[in-house]
Design brief:
seven-stranded antiparallel β-sheet; TIM Barrel; disordered N terminus; alpha/beta
Length: 415
């Protein structure tokens, strides 16, 4: 495991990049070690034994055939087979599990016309809160030794998934939290996720949901959002969303000890409105996938769950399955970051973002930019540079190289 950085090492790296030591960065972060838990994944066919070729550390169970309405198909009658199999396979792969507790079964819905995925009434508030509490109790008691985190709902700002009020969602959150903390006190309670790219729906829901959570004394450990940009958007647009979420969390007086997770992310997905789907492949796919996790490290997003591990999806822009450029970028970022202590600074005035890894004797540096290309000075002691395609070449310290959206690692692999 790499040792923690000293201020002297970071100062040396900052000096090499040309970033002023007196001008504060717009964002900076430090900590570690960065673990595989930060690398999340959706694996829809997990219950059928699907195993990826990358080293994800956590999995989110959604779009996996195991929602509330698909498990408790009749009141008090549970079809556990699919969820049992998904959890057993996740456990066998040593994956930390985040399970989404919604959506409402048709039999439990207050209004069966609200929502149709994965069943009629799925976006409705339950007509009896006792049905919700009984469901959460059944899940937590059955899986408390296996599930590490419970998310209350999926994309609760969208009418596709939720047509109740933010306050009603906060009530479901509070009641679930009581049960989870009673029967599985070490598990994390994750707030309902909120998409950001549909700004009107985001602004209508997210601040009110935070206010209601505050009124209920913050019954969550983690705030959640979905960082998909518009179909024609980039990782830089996702960063804008991260900053918006964090600004709203600050306005909402979210306690500093609450984490922030992006529980679904990809690029190129059609929308909003008439924006078409964009296919993203090759070096761009690898670069954007790796940059997603670099951005998380820099901006303080504790986990990102990639959507999703599935062959030839016609929904997403970046494919993620064996042999794809997306999988290559994901694995490369994981290999760079896992086990690292880190100190990162956001680039200013045309400079790249920089994360310092490694130790005093053998520093490693990763540089990338969410905007236009810029130049970067190869750090001292670096003899090699590698990109997110895991393509490597020799470099000389002190020389200038071009940095863009493709993250570049600098280090000395022989040391």
């Amino acid at each position: 495991m790499r040792r923690a950085l000293t201020a002297a090492v970071l100062a040396a790296t900052v000096a090499l990049t040309g970033v002023s030591l007196t001008a504060p960065a717009q964002a900076d972060s430090s900590g570690g070690p960065y673990t595989d838990l930060n690398f999340g994944m959706h694996i829809p066919q997990l219950s059928q034994g699907e195993q990826t070729s990358v080293n994800e550390g956590s999995v989110r169970l959604w779009d996996s055939g195991v929602t509330w309405g698909q498990v408790e198909q009749k009141k008090g009658k549970y079809w556990w087979n699919g969820l049992d199999a998904a959890i057993a396979n996740a456990n066998a792969q040593n994956l930390s599990i985040l399970y989404v507790l919604g959506s409402t079964p048709q039999w439990a819905a207050k209004n069966t016309k609200q929502g149709k995925y994965p069943n009629k009434g799925a976006a409705s508030m339950p007509k009896n809160i006792s049905d919700w509490k009984n469901w959460v109790t059944a899940v937590v008691k059955r899986y408390r030794n296996s599930i590490d985190a419970y998310q209350i709902w999926n994309e609760a700002n969208l009418q596709t998934f939720w047509m109740g009020t933010p306050e009603e969602m906060a009530t479901l959150t509070k009641e679930a939290s009581k049960i989870i903390r009673k029967y599985d006190p070490t598990a994390k309670v994750v707030a309902a996720s909120t998409t950001v790219r549909l700004q009107s729906a985001y602004k209508k829901f997210f601040p009110k949901y935070l206010a209601a959570l505050k009124k209920n004394k913050w019954p969550v450990d983690v705030i959640a959002f979905h960082g998909y940009p518009a179909g024609n958007g980039t990782p830089g647009d996702r960063v804008t969303y991260i900053k918006q979420v964090q600004a709203d969390m600050k306005k909402g007086k979210v306690p500093a000890n609450k984490g922030l997770w992006d529980t679904e992310v990809n690029y190129g997905i059609a929308g909003p409105g008439s924006v078409p789907r964009v296919v993203i492949d090759g070096g761009t796919a690898a670069a954007w996938t790796a940059a997603t996790y670099m951005d998380d490290m820099l901006y303080g997003v504790d986990r990102a769950y990639w959507y999703y591990w599935y062959n030839n999806s016609n929904l997403v822009g970046i494919q993620m399955y064996n042999g794809t450029f997306g999988a290559l970028g994901y694995q490369t970022a994981r290999n760079w970051l896992s086990g690292s202590f880190y100190s990162c600074q956001e680039g200013q005035a045309g400079q790249p973002n920089v994360c310092q890894l490694g130790d005093n004797l053998n520093p490693e540096v990763i540089a990338w930019t969410g905007g236009p290309e810029t130049t970067f000075t190869v750090p001292a002691n670096a003899s090699q540079q590698c990109n997110a395609l895991n393509e490597c070449a020799a470099v000389l310290p002190g020389t200038q190289v071009t940095i863009g959206s493709m993250p570049i690692w600098f280090g000395n692999p022989a040391s």
